[in-house]
Amino acid sequence: MTESRRKVVPVLFLLLGAAVMAVPFLVTVANSLKTFEQYISVPPQWLPNPVEWANYGEVLQREPLFWRFAMNSFVVAGLSVVGCLLTSSMVGFALARLRLPGRQALLAVALGTMALPTVITIVPSFVLYRQLGWLDTHAPLILPYSLGTAFGIFLMRQAFLTIPRELLEAATVDGANPWRAFWRTQLPLVRPQLATLGVFTFMASWGAVLEPTIYLTSEEKFTLPIGVISLQGQYMGNEQIVAAAALLSLVPMLIIFVAAQRYFIRGVVSSGLKG
């Protein structure tokens, strides 16, 4: 079997997987451009005719809370990214380069938390945030990321391990303390991994539904995903407008991914070079 024929099966498998994932998205795009009569027609009308671009204008111009939801999501996701990048890189550097007793055990414990489903920790977390008086605030949505994530710590540790140790030793000989060596000589060399972690964190925080649903009760504090869900009651009988709002909520994630794509791919590839 030639090399080109051996590649046919994996390519077909990938194309099939891409089609399975793309179909729901394309159906939502089509639904967002229909009238309600087209939306509920039987048999289904797959393509909108005429195309109702006004559905998007309905969301942007007549729904003031949509902009409030979007701003809340930007604040929560932005602070989560900044906090996660700072703390995860610091912990990752410490586990990779500093002589800490039990650092392998600490890494194992951190990685072990990745096996815990969120639903298991949601009740004790709710009790903790209630004792702190943080319910119906954005703090419970930002804090878990700002204290570092297990994935972020692992990713950054792997990144720092790929940097020659001699660079850190040279900085130390020149009189740099651990913080200065980390900030000035090590952190600039892991920008692809930082971009990767930033994209993952932004997407996770922006698209979170479970935590905002549990911790937030005031509508003006809703983030965009649960804000869009709340519109279903208001636009009952106009579900095509809710579909348009859901697609608009994806735009920031797509912009972030496209802007950081070059660093994102490089960071994913290089993160597994050394264990």
From TrEMBL:
Q: By its UniProt entry, which InterPro entries does this protein fall under?
A: MetI-like, MetI-like_sf
* TM segment ranges: 74-98, 105-129, 141-160, 194-215, 241-260
- Example GO BP: transmembrane transport
| Annotated Pfam families | BPD_transp_1
Work out whether the entry's keyword set contains Membrane. yes
Provide the ABC transmembrane type-1 domain boundaries.
70-260
Compartments reported by the entry: Cell membrane
Question: How does the protein's chain sit in the membrane according to the entry?
Answer: Multi-pass membrane protein
Q: Which domain of life is it from?
A: Bacteria
Q: Does the keyword Membrane apply?
A: yes
Q: Which GO terms describe its cellular component?
A: plasma membrane
Q: Which UniProt keywords apply?
A: Cell membrane, Membrane, Sugar transport, Transmembrane, Transmembrane helix, Transport
Q: Which family does it belong to?
A: Belongs to the binding-protein-dependent transport system permease family.
Q: Can you name this protein?
A: Multiple sugar transport system permease protein
Organism, scientific name: Jiangella mangrovi
Q: What is the lineage of its organism?
A: Bacteria, Bacillati, Actinomycetota, Actinomycetes, Jiangellales
